[in-house]
Amino acid sequence: MSAQDRAADSTPPGLPPIVAAIRSSRRDLARLLTRIENGQAAAELAALYPYTGKAHIVGVTGAPGTGKSSLVNALARHYRREGQTVGIVAVDPSSPFTGGAILGDRIRMQDLSGDAGVFIRSMATRGSLGGLASTTGDLTRALDAAGYDLVFVETVGAGQSEVDIARTAQTTLVVEAPGLGDDVQAIKAGILEIADILVVNKADRPGIENTVRALRAMLELGHRTERALHHGRLLNVSAAPPDENENAAWQPPIVQTVALDGKGIPELAEKLAAHRAYLRSSGTLAVREQARIEAEIADRLRDALLTRLLSQTDPALLAALVEQVSARTLDPGSAIQQLLKRFGENHTG
Ligand SMILES: Nc1nc2c(ncn2[C@@H]2O[C@H](COP(=O)(O)OP(=O)(O)OP(=O)(O)O)[C@@H](O)[C@H]2O)c(=O)[nH]1
Ligand SMILES: [Mg+2]
């Protein structure tokens, strides 16, 4: 009997096979993550869903090169010393598997790669099926069900897709660094609003005071207002009215770090724990979770309906409509009405 078989044998009885498998075998976990990325894991995701909700999901975002990967690396080492396990999903917006950033991440995270308590997954966004945010959410769920205590999700940049991904996290770190040329870069992009904790990394570099001062000024201006709670609202969930002052009791702290030598990392870990405790005690965790699920259902419904509609549409009809719209004999709105009408007939007839 192999070590793996023994591990599988020792998992509690009654555990769904997929959960037992990913808890005892890194290879099975890696395979599941690949199937998730390929959109082929609906049954497994359904089976493992009841075993999620235990991990602390932490989003890490910020401009390119601010030190996100280095920071996650340093945090992972910190948590490993404390006996906790760490899953990492690095979302790279552009490069496929040969991309420089992913290669760089691999090298930087190499010192963790031999550790069974750490699982690192790079995800290329190009070619990923389905919505990026929902795929990322499913990857983190798999790592959660696999038993990792913390799951970090690293995304580059400050666009809508980062905001969407951040919403899949419970705690969002926004990483800044001095000397990026524009101290208020992040604020312009609206990313400050999603920060639960602001990290000013590269605190060993000149210009750190300016960056901290600029961020503090922005926070004091009350720039941070309503969170992204209302986006994608589909259903009227009445059970938990969104708290108007959801973050009144949580002022996003600014933590200075040097990811390369670990300075400030214990303080950052403390803030992460404090934020999680706050989320729980204030009830914010449940409110956010509900908003997140609402948005996710809306996204997935949109994808599913579009896929279904297109699969049931005669390509010749679609081509004819495109032809008419380009000949200006039909407007796009009327073309869509025709498509919807056929779709409706298919479902009632
Ligand atoms: N001086 C200094 N350099 C750092 C620090 N943290 C990271 N770096 C360096 O900054 C560069 C970028 O670090 P990464 O961790 O790759 O940054 P990133 O934000 O993950 O980069 P992308 O994923 O490409 O956006 C690397 O050369 C790191 O060695 C730090 O605290 N101080
Ligand atoms: Mg990185």
**CATH domain class of the largest domain:** Alpha Beta
What is the β-strand count?
A: 7
For the termini, the CA-CA separation is 58 Å
Oligomer: single chain
Largest sheet: 7 strands, parallel
Helix count, per DSSP?
15
Q: Compute the gyration radius: what is it?
A: 22 Å
> Are any ligands bound, and if so which?
guanosine-5'-triphosphate, magnesium ion
What is the name of the CATH topology of the largest domain?
Answer: Rossmann fold
Mean pLDDT across all amino acids: 81
Q: CATH superfamily assignment of the largest domain?
A: P-loop containing nucleotide triphosphate hydrolases
Shape: globular
Reading the helices and strands in chain order gives: HHHHEHEHHEHEHEHEHEHHHH
Q: Which range best describes the helical content: under 10%, 10-25%, 25-40%, 40-55%, 55-70% or over 70%?
A: 40-55%
SS content category:
alpha/beta
Instruction: Trace the largest sheet across and list its strands.
Output: 3-2-4-1-5-6-7
What ranges have pLDDT less than 50 throughout 5 or more consecutive residues?
A: 95-105, 223-247
Q: What CATH architecture of the largest domain do you see?
A: 3-Layer(aba) Sandwich
Sum this structure up briefly.
The protein has 15 helices and seven strands. It has 349 residues and is α/β, with parallel strands linked by helices. Strand 6, helix 11 (208-220) and strand 7 form a beta-alpha-beta unit.
